[in-house]
Amino acid sequence: MDYIFYMIIFLLFFCLPCLFVYFLYWILKKSGRKKTGIIASIVFILPFLLFTSYIIFDDLFLSKSEAREILKGHQIVLNDDFEVTFNQSGGFRDYTHKFELSISEKDKRTFIEGRIWDDKPDERIQVHSQLMDRYEGDTLRANYTNGKYYIYSMYRPNGKGIVPTFVEISVLKDKNTLIYEEILD
Predict the structure, then answer these.
(1) Same domain, residue pair 89 and 165
(2) pTM of full prediction above 0.90
């Protein structure tokens, strides 16, 4: 069933625009306007290629303001300048988005001192936990530490039939690196 769905998506997204551009060129060429056909084909295919390349290379386009907005949604404010050192997203059925930021010592201290930390994670907050209904209930949050990280976790059910959201934001204890990972499972 998934194979058919992805084939339909491929046909609609890729094949139909290519056929439209080809027939546009062919019709104009047959009517004696070959140069107009070439120009029209380029004009119609260029936005499609730009949009397709944006989707394929979306990982390269995470801006600092987008990262700030994502973190702001979890009450994490970065006051100093930072660098995006890694960004990756993808997946159709299990969407994940992960990025790493090189942050200042002051922002790291603000993240650590602004929370109360436990020694172990809340078992209900894990992605594949059997301890709770995955689709209904309250948003769960936990702050805990392990040997290498300070970790903030958030689990939000989104309702029946909608995949829940799991977010984990961690800061390395020995480096000024913040790691954000969001999983829609």
Answers:
(1) yes
(2) no
Place of tokens 């942050």: 103
In sequence order, the β-bridge partners of residue 20 are none
- Mark whether 39 and 77 lie in a shared domain: no
- Contact (Cβ atoms closer than 8 angstroms) between residue 170 and residue 151: yes
SS3 166: strand
Q: Domain total for the chain?
A: 2
Asked if residues 82 and 104 have their Cβ atoms less than 8 Å apart, the reply is yes
Is there a single domain that holds both residue 126 and residue 160?
yes
Whether residue 117 sits in one domain with residue 180: yes
Contact 80, 104 (CB under 8 A): yes
- Tell me the pLDDT tens digit for each residue of 84-110: 999 888 776 678 889 999 999 999 999
Looking at the chain, list the stretches that DSSP marks H as alpha helix, in order from N- to C-terminal side: 2-10, 16-30, 34-56, 64-72, 105-113
